[in-house]
Amino acid sequence: MNKSGLYSAQILKKFNNKSGPNPRLLKIEVNALKEGPNTETYYFEIPSAPRHLDVTLTSPTSVKIAWQPPVHANGILMGYYIYHDKMSGGQDAGAAGYNKRSTTQIRDPAKTYFEMDKLEPNTEYAFRMNAFNRNGDGEFTEVRTIVTGGIAPNPPEILSLSLVRDDAPLVARIDWKPPAIRPNEGPINKYNIWYKPKGLSDSYMKMKSVEGTATSTEIQELWMGLEYDIWLGAENEEGQSGNATETLLTPVGSPDGEPQGVQYEISQGKIVVSWMPPPEDKRNGNITAYKAILTPMDSVGERIERKIDATDSTSPQRVTFSVDAKKAYTFKITASTMKGYGPYSPVLTINPDVSG
């Protein structure tokens, strides 16, 4: 063919020449436009199809594409093209052709896998690929289809959290904005609310679930005088969203319970009384003080009243009385928050120390 002049070139077909030594050929016809009918035909060797194409899900919206090199590189293999497209109504993507905008070029001929992400959830995709050398694109593999997984919702947005009533029993209301539903994302089935006093173990956690159409609810069984951690999440068939978080301070009240485990011992002629704070759900706030009363059982002595600072409400508290331990006494104690005192403990009888 004369190198000068104007020509048109047309790829007629790729075909298998099974009788030849190189079975994959690309046929091109070149026509001289100015010199009349003058057609020359050229054949270029192109790669055969990559082998063992496999597509597997690695996450709801990611896949791993693996393959083996073609049997016939027919020259220096330069890389691969991966084509993917969404299936529409079960349409055969291989027969319908591929959208070239969904093409990935891999210029490493030694590579045998590729990880693809940012696919749409709950969507069927079709994949195929071919290799290329200096002469052009090789034969296509068979089509592989896969359906991506579903995805959990985004977190809802807490709009407000407030107390409906601020005396016992406490009730709080939480309002939220549903998360935006992404394409092909399943509907929200329910919302889950967890709440517990800050700093306490998960054994104090409470949970409430409401329908997926709800945008508010009330939570109960709250203790007074505490800071609560609140978590709100949305759930669909694919899983639970991340949580929106908020905190709630409940008002302080006087204790509903008395100190626990009151006991005494007599040591070196002194009466030592110890106790534990009221149960956590009866404290209604931080215990700030105790008031202890020791009363002689005869009519001679005077009642003794002591106020004790509660610097650490989780440790055993104690008070010492330097009195005549050979006499009998009664003892009772009450706990206080900043709002006032609660009920007294049952009266404890302290028997005389006969050993002294």
From TrEMBL:
Residues 49-151, 155-257, 258-355 form the Fibronectin type-III domain. SMART domains: FN3. It comes from the Eukaryota. Pfam families: fn3. Keywords: Disulfide bond. The keyword Disulfide bond applies. One of its GO terms (biological process) is cell-cell adhesion. One of its GO terms (cellular component) is membrane. PANTHER family: CONTACTIN, PROTEIN SIDEKICK. This is Fibronectin type-III domain-containing protein. It comes from Diploscapter pachys.
